[in-house]
């Protein structure tokens, strides 16, 4: 048996033995339709991990959101009214299984200035925003081990809208408007539950190493 063939056998055995330990991934993506705020636990369902014979070793979330935040004015004075500052803001969150709570940040608009018309509501131009794509690693994997779906919730909280004016006769109120949508991807990393090489693999590896030893011994005697 040539030395090259012996090395080939040993390499093949090692590859077969280690193949079951290589990590694999599978991903599920769920679109989140754009909806008007307020977002009150808007449900996002993603397939859980249920693969017999495999062990879940990691969960990664990839998410992105787009939308807009703005304000509308209500002018009850009967005539156009100037305003100096109209602002709006809200905080966005993505919650999930267990204690998973991801702050997506605060989105705001303004300050804007102009003249409020007598048409109510007078909707001002909104400020568009974009979040992500962003990745987060989940530490608790147990909630994802299910043949059913895993529920996430898209929320916003603390909506506010204000307007100020120097006009003494102003009868003007501000209100919040906004919308958001996006997508959520869950990537599962897994490997085979039994990572111990099978007997046949061990026998092949042993044969390769034995052959390597015999070739070395033969060459030693020749010298």
Count of folded domains? 1
Class computed from helices, strands and strand pairing: alpha+beta
Radius of gyration equals: 31 Å
What characteristic shape results from the CA principal axes? Answer: rod-shaped
How confident overall, as mean pLDDT? 82
Enumerate the spans where pLDDT stays under 50 for 5 or more consecutive residues: 3-20
Instruction: Report how far the terminal alpha carbons are from each other.
Output: 18 Å
**In percent, how helical is the residue content?**
10-25%
What is the chain-wise order of helices and strands?
HEEEEEEEEEH
> Count of helical segments?
2
Task: Give a short account of the largest sheet.
Answer: 5 strands, antiparallel
Number of strands: 9
β-sheet strand percentage = over 45%
Q: What's a quick, concise take on this entry?
A:
This protein has 223 residues and is of the alpha+beta class.
How would you characterize the overall build of this protein?
It is a single chain. This protein has 223 residues and is α+β, with helices and mostly antiparallel strands. It has one domain. 18% of the residues lie in helices and 55% in strands. It has two helices and nine strands; from the N terminus they run αβββββββββα. The chain has helices at residues 3-19, 199-222; strands spanning 24-36, 42-47, 54-75, 81-95, 101-116, 122-123, 127-138, 149-164, 172-192. Strands 1, 3, 6, 7 and 9 form a five-stranded antiparallel beta sheet that branches. Strands 2-8-4-5 form a four-stranded antiparallel beta sheet, with no helix packed on it. Strand 4 and strand 5 form a beta hairpin. Helix 1 packs antiparallel against helix 2. The longest helix is centred in the last third of the chain and has 24 residues, at 199-222. The chain is rod-shaped.
